[in-house]
Hints:
By secondary structure, the protein is mainly alpha-helical. It has a domain at 1-25. It has one helix at 2-39. The chain is elongated. The N and C termini lie far apart (75 Å). The relative contact order is 0.06.
Amino acid sequence: MMTFFSVFFILIGINAIMMFFSLTGIDQKTKKSDSTASKASESQIYPMDLASSEYKKAV
C-alpha cells in the first residue's frame, strides 16, 4: 500500500511539473502569435451567388 501511494504521488508531482511548463509555453506562444497575426494580411471572403446559378435537371 505504501509503494502504491509513493508511486502515485511521484506521478502526480511529475504531472504537475509538466503541466506548469506546458502552460508557461502556451503563454509565450500566444504572445508571439498575436504579433504575427496583426502583420498578416486579411483574406477577403466573397459571398456565393447561388440564386443566379443554373442547375441541370437530373432526369
